[in-house]
């Protein structure tokens, strides 16, 4: 049973002090690793839909309350208005295949990815606004923008469902956050901009294109936003019978066109068709020589299909109930490409592609240098391929994708996860590290060496681009999780150091991670939306006791965002 059975543990989330159990911890590493995950104690039907948890791991020993030779691992449930309302009235919340609903509306799980912005920290989710949290306490500060500014996909008395992206981007030159919002019925798409303060965001409708599925990722260059329909299709049936679309639209929107249109206007972009399906993609920021994007395609991966107790796996064996709720793993070999888009000519050039069924199954998550300098001239793209896991592929999914996946090329047995360091523009594998089949690595995080020196931005190391620094990876195992640190210049050397908790503790699977140069309290002097700002006449449609619960939560939270949790 190679997939750790502990990966969906519903145990508590204690503070832990990790210790070095192998290798030597380098002296040129600093800051914090932050990781998002889904709280399995809230019993989500789909494992990805639990309440949001943010974990902060200190990368320097003896900090954040740890002993001098220990590293502080600090998880916290993000106490959003959604979570606070559930705690007050748990009996009215119901977990479904598509999230958690209630008379208040749909819970904003905020559980998918951490998004650092200078010294600020946000948590994201595909069906809710970004949530700002305090980097020190990991407590809720504010949601971004008034709910009506986002044009909710499903409005509600208190908690609207906002179809957005789990991966908004921070513009290093315009000083803003770019996101999107989408109408789940028409597919109409809008770009959203948040300038870092205030109670509102600006929104522009994108004409000439609709997205029929989702917008899990957006990326950017200096002049363009790159938006693509991503491989997650909503299915309201009791038993999922749909398949993700094999292709979808991609649109380039010029940033200057958004600025000149003014808030509330409409813009047109350059529309392309992209195949095969994709979930994550990353552009090089410098577009002077062309718009180049690494596309981590996901053929045969259905995030919406989760495992059930009555399922049988790819080889006809009963699926272990311990995996109930985990998403269906890759049914096809992974494909990664570098594509260059020309919005004037309307052309797409296939610059490079990586496809090796003997090595690479399921492009899971990746790491890169997110400093401004690293985005301008990226040199490495580090990608974890999760491997082939027949016990995480159910026969229901194989029926849905009949004709689009080829079971005859399945490996005869489980294959291990591989971390591949790829040359950014050619996708040439420069180094690899393979785990044992019992290991389950999660999101790699790039950590620069000696960041913030003279002439460099605070996030940039001595030699930006992604080749000089470290990759920190949380690895799940039933004997206990560990954090491995690999040299980004040569991951084939294996971990240079390994952290582990003292008692072999296990944790729920980690989703996306990021690096923070330091953890300081959220700034006090910014105007932000308060939960009370979202409460209006729509509240009157609720029973009086539920109205009172919403008002009580609002009274407990910052008003206007002018204070934060101590």
TrEMBL record:
Principal EC category: oxidoreductase
Cofactor note: Binds 1 Fe(2+) ion per subunit.
Cofactor requirement: Fe(2+)
Enzyme Commission number(s) from the entry: 1.13.11.-
Source superkingdom: Bacteria
Keywords, ordered alphabetically: Dioxygenase, Iron, Metal-binding, Oxidoreductase
Similarity-based family: Belongs to the carotenoid oxygenase family.
Protein name (database record): Dioxygenase
């Amino acid at each position: 049973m190679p997939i750790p059975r502990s990966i969906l543990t519903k145990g508590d989330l204690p503070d832990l002090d990790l210790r070095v159990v192998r290798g030597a911890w380098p002296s040129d590493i600093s800051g914090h690793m932050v990781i998002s995950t889904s709280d399995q104690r809230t019993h989500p039907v789909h494992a990805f839909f639990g309440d949001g948890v943010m974990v902060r791991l200190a990368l320097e020993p003896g900090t954040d309350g740890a002993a001098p030779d220990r590293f502080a691992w600090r998880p916290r449930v993000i106490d959003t208005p959604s979570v606070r309302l559930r705690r007050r009235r748990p009996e009215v919340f119901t977990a479904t295949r598509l999230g958690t609903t209630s008379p208040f509306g749909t819970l904003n799980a905020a559980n998918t990815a951490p998004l650092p912005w200078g010294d600020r920290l946000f948590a994201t989710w595909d069906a809710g606004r970004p949530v700002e949290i305090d980097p020190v306490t990991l407590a809720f500060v504010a949601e971004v923008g008034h709910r009506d500014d986002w044009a909710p996909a499903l409005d509600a008395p208190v908690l609207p469902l906002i179809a957005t992206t789990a991966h908004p981007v921070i513009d290093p030159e315009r000083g803003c956050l770019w996101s999107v919002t989408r109408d789940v019925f028409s597919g109409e798409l809008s770009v959203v901009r948040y300038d870092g303060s205030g109670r509102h965001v600006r929104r522009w409708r994108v004409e000439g294109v609709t997205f029929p599925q989702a917008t899990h990722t957006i990326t950017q260059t200096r002049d363009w936003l790159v938006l693509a329909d991503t491989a997650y299709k909503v299915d309201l049936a009791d038993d999922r019978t749909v398949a993700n679309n094999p292709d979808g639209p991609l649109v380039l929107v010029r940033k200057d066109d958004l600025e000149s249109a003014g808030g509330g206007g409409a813009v047109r972009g350059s529309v392309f068709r992209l195949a095969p399906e994709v979930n994550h993609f990353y552009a090089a920021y410098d577009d002077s020589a062309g718009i180049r994007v690494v596309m981590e395609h996901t053929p045969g991966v259905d995030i919406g299909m989760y495992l059930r107790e009555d399922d049988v796996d790819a080889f006809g064996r009963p699926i272990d109930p311990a995996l109930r709720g985990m998403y269906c793993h890759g049914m096809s070999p992974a494909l990664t490409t570098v594509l260059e888009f020309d919005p004037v000519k309307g052309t797409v050039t296939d610059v490079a592609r990586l496809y090796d069924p003997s090595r690479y199954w399921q492009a899971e998550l990746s790491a890169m240098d997110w400093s401004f300098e690293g985005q301008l001239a990226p040199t490495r793209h580090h990608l974890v391929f999760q491997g082939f896991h027949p016990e995480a592929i159910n026969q229901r999914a194989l029926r849905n994708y009949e004709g689009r996946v080829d079971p005859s090329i399945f490996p005869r047995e489980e294959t291990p996860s591989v971390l591949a360091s790829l040359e950014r523009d050619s996708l040439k594998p420069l180094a690899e590290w393979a785990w044992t089949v019992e290991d389950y690595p999660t999101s790699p995080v790039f950590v620069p060496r000696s960041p913030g020196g003279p002439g460099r931005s605070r996030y940039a190391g001595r030699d930006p681009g992604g080749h000089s620094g470290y990759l920190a990876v949380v690895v799940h195992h039933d004997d206990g999780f560990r954090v491995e640190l690999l040299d980004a210049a040569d991951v084939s050397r294996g971990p240079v150091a390994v952290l582990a908790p003292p008692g072999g503790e296990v944790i729920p699977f980690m989703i996306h991670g990021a690096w923070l140069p330091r953890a300081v309290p959220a700034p006090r002097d910014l105007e932000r939306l308060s939960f009370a700002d979202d409460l209006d006449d729509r509240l009157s449609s609720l029973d009086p006791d539920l109205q009172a619960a919403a008002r009580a939560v609002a009274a407990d939270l910052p008003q206007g965002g002018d204070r934060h949790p101590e």
